[in-house]
Amino acid sequence: MRKEDKASAIELIGAKLQEYPHFYLVDTAGLNAQQTSDLRRKCFGADIKMLVVKNTLLEKALEKAEVDFSGLYPALVGNTAVMFSNVANAPAKLIKDFAGKNELIKLKAAYAEEGIFVGAQHLADLCAIKSKNELIADVIALLQSPAKNVISGLQGAAGNKIHGLLKALGERPE
Prior knowledge:
Blueprint: H1 3-19, E1 22-27, H2 33-45, E2 49-53, H3 55-64, E3 80-85, H4 90-101, E4 106-112, E5 115-118, H5 123-128, H6 132-155, H7 157-171
Antiparallel strand pairs: 1-3, 1-4, 2-3, 4-5
Helix pairs in contact: 1-3, 6-7
């Protein structure tokens, strides 16, 4: 590979690192052409950008980044594909789903929610990370639950008693 090509590849990887807040390093060495094509199709459907990179070029791009990615360097051995995503848990769920069908894809490391995870043992933890939309939905559900309890109480038998008491107090002469 020519020096100019290497420099442009490093710039491309660096641009992706700035564009996406989360990325996963996976080993896809055991996949054949059909399985790799299926994985790329699933990545596209899940809005995940997948790049197969050379470890030395990825390491140089990580060194140039503003964030300290030195914890990921030990994972840069063998075949490496990088999955870039805007949602922290999307690549983990895709890897878990895809690895369930065949054991040919392995998580090497991940940078998600400003944390570094090295090793396949963290896949379940990464799947459990909630996205921003999931957290907002949880907060809304928690805020709505007391109001729902009050409304259901007013509509039930207790509500009829309260209504009867209020009606009696309203009709009582002063």
